[in-house]
């Protein structure tokens, strides 16, 4: 069992998010805490010409609203944090800041970018100062494919 769990959730599959939140709740010590962390990837400003100025702010607010709602729906007592940056670095930093003893993540089907740049999971595994649990169960494709 764990005192502080960082649960990294993207805006992908709702089924994966539910599975991760339930697993985090099951692994939590009595009186422990879960931090649900979503990272809006930092996009270099030279690439923002086609995106509205409020893109990051809107993405952050949307992610927070959806994750708070999902935690409430599942009855999982968690603090939701949304950050802007590089996902792997933000997850490792959050774990260090909170003295977490577990980072909980899900994997995905690797694509060519994972082999060229390495995956978020791989980077977290390499740099985390605590245990990392990877949920490897692939989700079946859903009609909408989105988290919420």
Automatic annotation (TrEMBL):
Superkingdom as given in the UniProt entry: Bacteria
InterPro entries: Rossmann-like_a/b/a_fold, UspA
SUPFAM superfamilies documented for this protein: Adenine nucleotide alpha hydrolases-like (SSF52402)
Listed CDD domains: USP-like
Domain UspA positions: 1-134
Annotated Pfam families: Usp
The family this protein is said to belong to: Belongs to the universal stress protein A family.
Family annotation (PANTHER family): STRESS RESPONSE PROTEIN NHAX, UNIVERSAL STRESS PROTEIN UP12
Protein name, entry field: Universal stress protein
Organism field: Rhizobium sophoriradicis
């Amino acid at each position: 069992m764990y005192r502080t769990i960082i649960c990294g959730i993207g805006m992908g599959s709702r089924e994966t998010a539910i599975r991760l939140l339930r697993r985090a709740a099951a692994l939590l010590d009595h009186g422990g805490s879960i931090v649900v962390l979503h990272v809006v990837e930092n996009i270099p400003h030279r690439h923002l010409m086609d995106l509205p100025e409020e893109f990051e702010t809107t993405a952050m607010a949307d992610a927070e609203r959806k994750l708070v709602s999902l935690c409430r729906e599942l009855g999982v007592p968690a603090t939701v944090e949304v950050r802007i940056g590089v996902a792997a670095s933000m997850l490792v930093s959050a774990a260090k800041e909170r003295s977490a003893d577990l980072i909980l993540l899900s994997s995905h089907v690797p694509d060519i970018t994972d082999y060229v740049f390495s995956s978020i999971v791989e980077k977290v595994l390499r740099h985390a100062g605590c245990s990392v649990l990877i949920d490897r169960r692939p989700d079946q494709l859903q009609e909408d494919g989105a988290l919420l």
